[in-house]
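Fill in residues.
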């Protein structure tokens, strides 16, 4: 069976009619990753969930 990971994130989002979506995502390790626009938000999500090994705010379950 594969390994399952739980990623715990705090997401602060600013939504405006005048500007693209923006905000900050923090993982359990406390590292803040800022983003502006949907592409950057998805890039941050990918970076947080694709880090092999290390503690990036995840809990592993087998």
């Amino acid at each position: 069976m594969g390994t399952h990971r739980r990623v715990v994130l705090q997401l602060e989002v600013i939504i405006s009619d005048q500007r693209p979506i923006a905000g900050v995502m923090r993982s359990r390790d406390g590292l803040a990753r800022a983003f502006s626009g949907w592409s950057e938000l998805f890039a941050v999500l990918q970076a947080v969930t694709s880090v092999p090994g290390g503690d990036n705010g995840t809990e592993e379950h087998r």
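The first strand starts at residue 4 and ends at 7.
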